[in-house]
Amino acid sequence: MRRNAMQQLYDWKEKSTRKPLIIRGARQVGKTWLMKEFAATAYKQFAYINFEDNEVMKEVFQKDFDIERILMAIQLVTGKVVDTDTLILFDELQEAPRGLTAMKYFLEKAPQYHVIAAGSLLGIAMHQNDSFPVGKALKRTSLTILFRFLFPKKGTRNMITSKILVTISFI
């Protein structure tokens, strides 16, 4: 399963018409791990922003969608020089008002940058004034990743299977 998810991300990276990628799923299912693991293996460097604990970046997205200003803020906060060989990771996107809407401006104004955002399904749905940028895609593809965990059943040799789903949406 891990290999399949990583392959989907490598395929996304190589697309000439690559769009920002949003990984949606329930809390604690491995979205952050998947993003960081991919970033560490596929890119020269990555700039990671977690909106859950970064008030400065939350405010950056509230002002406007000036991508150059957003990129400068990312560089200041992360200490990384963001160029086209840098993967930009936005984690807990649901915590950034207007963060989801900002993704379409990366596509429109700065398509050369590689951007992945992650957030919980419930959290992304909670922002009533933040629209999902569906108008920027001719085709939307979703991949659901199933993680299976085996736990020993107490007092037996049998195993209990637990399933968790993560959805990767290409916008």
Can you describe what's shown?
The protein is α/β, with parallel strands linked by helices and 171 residues long. The protein has 6 helices and 6 strands. It has a 6-stranded mixed beta sheet with strand order 2-3-4-1-6-5, with helices on both faces. The longest helix has 13 residues, at 2-14. The radius of gyration is 17 Å and the shape is elongated. The two termini are 22 Å apart.
List its salient traits.
6 strands; 6 helices; 6-stranded mixed β-sheet; alpha/beta; 171 residues
Please tell me the overall pLDDT: 79
Shape: elongated
One letter per element, helices H and strands E, the order comes to HEHEHHEHEHEE
Low-confidence stretches: 134-142
Largest sheet: 6 strands, mixed
Question: How many beta-strand segments?
Answer: 6
> How large is the count of helical segments?
6
State the distance separating the first and last CA atoms. 22 Å
- Please list the strands of the largest sheet in the order they lie side by side: 2-3-4-1-6-5
Q: Report helical residue fraction.
A: 25-40%
